[in-house]
Design brief:
This protein has 173 residues and is an alpha+beta fold. It is 21% helix and 30% strand. It is built from four helices and six strands; from the N terminus they run E-E-H-H-E-E-E-E-H-H. The protein is globular, with a radius of gyration of 16 Å. It starts with 27 loop residues before the first strand and ends in a 12-residue tail after the last helix.
Length: 173
């Protein structure tokens, strides 16, 4: 299966926006029921000397979990996010974060992620609960047309990725 990058949430998204010079600029891919990204933290993300800030790590997880909509086929927002740091996360060292939807319980999406360094060392795990929402949730907060632009980009990417389409409405309660 050819792996195509999924579109950013928005061009200036702090996690995946290519036009945000202070952002993480994640490029996210889908492989079956998993989404993943490769990231290398740098000086923009420093916490302790030589190490990534825990907030930057959490932001990368949160952004990747936001791509769970390709799997769950619904827009959703973060309810809770927990990161368990297993080892220091060094700067300038590539790592892969992989995530999947562990369970769908009504409107709740339970997600899990794991990050591994290029040598296979597990650096952290993360869990989140997202809540499925209607697309109107985003329309009331963003500029006119931005939500439709996002839906158009998502639909275009899904046309290349397979038959799953995000639903503009949350699953039945």
């Amino acid at each position: 299966m050819t792996q195509l990058p999924l579109p950013p949430h928005s061009p200036t998204c702090m996690g995946c926006g290519p036009d945000n010079p202070a952002g993480l600029q994640l490029v996210v891919f889908r492989s079956g029921d998993e989404v993943y990204t490769d990231v290398t933290f740098d000086e923009r993300h420093i916490g302790a000397p030589g190490l990534a800030h825990g907030g930057a790590v959490a932001a990368a997880c949160d952004d990747l979990f936001g791509y769970g909509l390709w799997i769950a086929r619904t827009p959703a927002v973060t309810r809770s996010l927990t990161v368990d740091y297993l080892a220091p996360v060094p700067l300038h060292r590539p790592l892969r974060i992989s995530a999947h939807v562990r369970e769908i319980d009504g409107r709740k999406l339970h997600l899990k992620a794991t990050a591994t360094a290029d040598d296979g060392t597990a650096l952290f795990t993360a869990q989140a609960v997202f809540i499925a929402v209607s697309i109107e949730h985003f329309a009331q907060h963003g500029p006119p047309g931005a939500v439709q632009d996002l839906l158009d980009r998502l639909t275009s990417a899904l046309d290349h990725d397979g038959p799953d389409r995000p639903s503009p409405h949350p699953p039945d309660r």
